[in-house]
Amino acid sequence: MNQAEKAILNETPRLVYGREELDDKDALLLTFFGDGFTEKEQELFFAEAKRMAKYMMATSPWDEYADAVKIYAIGVCSNESGVRADHARTQAEADADTRDSYFHASFWTFGMQRLVEIGEEDKGKVRDLYRKYLPDTDYAIVMVNSEVYGGSGGEISIVSRNDESLEMLLHELGHTIGILSDEYFAGNSYAGEYVNMSAESDPKKVRWSRFIGKNGIGVYEYDNGGDGWYKPHQNCKMRYLGRQFPFCEVCKEALRDQFAAHANVTKLFWQQYADTLREGAEPFDLKQYVIVRKCEKKETGTELGDRLTLSFFDADGTPLPAQPKNAGTYRLHAELSHDAVYGDAILETTFEIEPPDLIDLTVENKVCDGKPIEVKATLHDAPPSDLHYSYRGTMPYAAEITHLYESEEPPVLPGRYTVTVTATEKGGGRLVSRKSREFEISLHTSCIADHNTLEYPGAQPYYNNQTIVFTGEGYRAEELDKFEEDARRFVEYFRMLPLYKEADLYFNYYTVQAVSEGTHIGKEPSNTYYHVSRSDEDKLVQTDAGTRAAMYMANNGVTSFYKAVIVLVNGVYDVTGTTVTNKRFIVYAPVNEKGMRFAAMELLNYLSGKPEGVRAVTEEERAVQRREFLSALYREWEEYDYAPVLSQAYKEDFPAIGKPVDLTPHFHTYVNGREVAVPYRVRYFTEENGERGAELSEAPKDPGTYRAFAELVLDEGKDTCTAELDGQKYALPLARYETRFKLRVCNCTSK
Fold it and tell me: Given pLDDT bands bounded at 50, 70 and 90, which one contains residue 460?
């Protein structure tokens, strides 16, 4: 018996979702495997697989294929519970975790904590197992026994048991099954022509042109890089994770095509694209909106002709003698019977015929400012009428928490909404016209400091950049300017501390505004945004929902690669801050100097893998802290070692002795907190009004304030610089750093 066979406790795969009677070869078949589940934890694995399957199949458009999908789970026994590095806070801690799971899954792949991968040999083990036990498997998923957020995509998807990891799984399966692109810009190497990504910007020519105008579909340039590339939606699941972020209509249609390609099941769909059916318009062919799919075959109802029959009913289900023409809600019955190609299929759906378009409606997207959205509506070519406004939408709070909005009052808080204006004739109440428009109120973000990733590539967010996001608790709409001022004071404080100052170019600082109804921070959570309270010991107390909301604000307001969130708690000063380490790091701090120091010190603790409350006092402790801090700035990614370049030249006054002052020896590069010898190319500039001025032809020699700009010298013909430490070689990509320094008047006398 081989190793794989020894790992299987029960050779019968367990069906966790789908119809038993559906043949495996006719289904879209997914198979879950477990990693880090011991023999005693197998029932936990099966229960979790069932839970995940249920979650997936409740998501559109997966739910449309409920009768064509089968999901199995195969129990695999690991020697130890859990997987490597899930709770590690540093790369060193990750490397020290040697837990023995069957597929050897590990967090901290390529230096990224949440990136969970298995090796090529272990992927081969997965393939061997499903080929033996479920050869009709279309896609394999490895579930790791950890509640920490993480996972990865590709041929074999990896997912942890964390609730938010399920959203990651759906996103990754969008890549794997739907052949969809990310709708955030992942880098030029990932850019190309996809169903949902194109270099074409003309709405009439873009491949999703028929969808434009439906549920937010348009042509949007990537807003976080990727100039010249366009996507169909601003808030698709291929950009953001969370229940409140569905797949956009374009991605749904691509997924339907791919689901059908793997399932030998005939399905009928109603696809109206962005077309609006209106009373009084030219006769419309409803068959064009009915689509039949089976395997890789796909036709519209128009192409099916008489093979497809349509029947119409009013809203109460009363049959109609013909296709309706008047405004109203109707039911449609579409039937394909005994078709030689597709067999039998039935579709039941509803559709709307809108009244004449007599309303000019304008509403603009805006950034949240604490004020209601403004809507302008004008009725024309109509009898005297009353206009009624209604608003519906969703207000995301956290990745898995969304509040529904339904009101006659315009919304104030960030969210995605639809305004509907209805015109009814005065006196009689007859429906005259109706018009809807979608709009968005987006998060208000601002940049305090962001160092150009092209100029400082060692600080790229994917690698070792530390992006710190400030948000506010207990700030009402009229106090948002105060929040911005408070955040800037915190950043100024941070940047004056030795370690932060030395590594300044590796830190980015942003704000995301949160609007609270009230400011009171009492012994119980109140009507503040994050629901912070204070204990009897006057220590700030967070809620789990509030913490998840803070993470959501940073992730969606700034970048998914943020390092930490600092929540500034307004209006309370005589309190102690608190920290939370979830999948990210959150600091709650009062808005005073005590809070500044607490936030700065606890962030250092987090970066160096220390618990809350640790303080470096002795010189030896400070040296250890600095080494750990430098280690946190180093990241491995694929074949590269992103090592920070730093300088403390700003601390020194160099004497002007009439000779150029070379700063090359004052730049240092660190791998895992230890300096490595590398060559630098240094350029010099004047300093004008605190900014880089004119470039000098050589190192300066006259008294004054200057800037030195150093970059690694790459090996000839390569895109990296080779460094060596303890006999191990490291490939360092281009990195740069800039420091200011002074040449002082020298009062030296010569003998």
Answer: very low
